[in-house]
């Protein structure tokens, strides 16, 4: 949200992000098919987190002055409460940081509740 507000407030015309389907997903870039095809996109992640999303996911592309960047995939309903965090893989592995201090690794709880 803050990123779109910053871009909107600091540019003459706000760029228009588009949503589309990841058609190619590789470590060196992705392609997203929306109204057109957006090829060899670099993805944008928080520091320390890197991912290669599987083809077929819905992704968001943002135009920049010197190209485009993939902002990430749209998360579906994952059953988290406000303030909780989940990391998961296509193969089913997951880590969930719960609000009560527990850590769930592949569904098994660690820590005090």
| Sheet with most strands | 5 strands, mixed, barrel
Shape: globular
**How far apart, in Å, are the first and last alpha carbons?**
32 Å
Q: Within the largest sheet, what's the order of strands? A: 1-2-3-5-4
Order of helices and strands: HEEEEEEEEE
Task: List low-pLDDT spans.
Answer: none
Report on the structure:
This protein is mainly beta. It folds into two domains: 2-73; 76-113, no CATH class. Helix content is 7%, strand content 43%. It has one helix and nine strands; from the N terminus they run αβββββββββ. It has one helix spanning 2-9; strands at 18-26, 29-33, 37-43, 58-64, 67-73, 85-88, 94-97, 103-105, 108-110. The strands form two sheets. A five-stranded mixed beta barrel has the order 1-2-3-5-4. The chain has a four-stranded antiparallel beta sheet with strand order 6-7-8-9, with no helix packed on it. Strand 4 and strand 5 form a beta hairpin. The longest helix has 8 residues, at 2-9. The radius of gyration is 17 Å and the shape is globular. The two termini are 32 Å apart. The mean pLDDT is 84.
């Amino acid at each position: 949200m803050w990123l779109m507000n910053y871009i909107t407030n600091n540019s003459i015309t706000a760029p228009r992000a588009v949503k589309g389907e990841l058609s190619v997903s590789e470590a060196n870039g992705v392609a997203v098919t929306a109204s057109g095809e957006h090829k060899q996109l670099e993805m944008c992640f928080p520091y320390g987190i890197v991912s290669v999303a599987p083809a077929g996911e819905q992704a968001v592309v943002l135009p920049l002055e010197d190209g485009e960047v993939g902002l990430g995939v749209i998360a579906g309903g994952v059953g988290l409460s406000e303030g909780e965090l989940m990391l998961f893989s296509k193969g089913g592995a997951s880590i969930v940081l719960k609000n009560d201090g527990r850590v769930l690794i592949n569904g098994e709880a660690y820590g005090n509740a």
